Amino acid sequence: MIDLKHLLFSFSGRIGRQYWWLTSLAVAFISGMANAVIEVAAKTSGHGAFDPEAQEFVPSWPYIVGILALGLVNVWISYAVAAKRLHDRDRTGWWAIVPWLVMIPGIAAMVGASSLPEDLSTLMFAVGAGIALVAIAMGIWLLIELGFLKGTAGPNRFGPDPLPPKPEGDAAPKPAAS
Question: Could you say which of 6, 8, 11, 15 would form a disulfide bridge with 83 (CB–CB 3.0 to 4.6 Å)?
Answer without folding.
Answer: 11
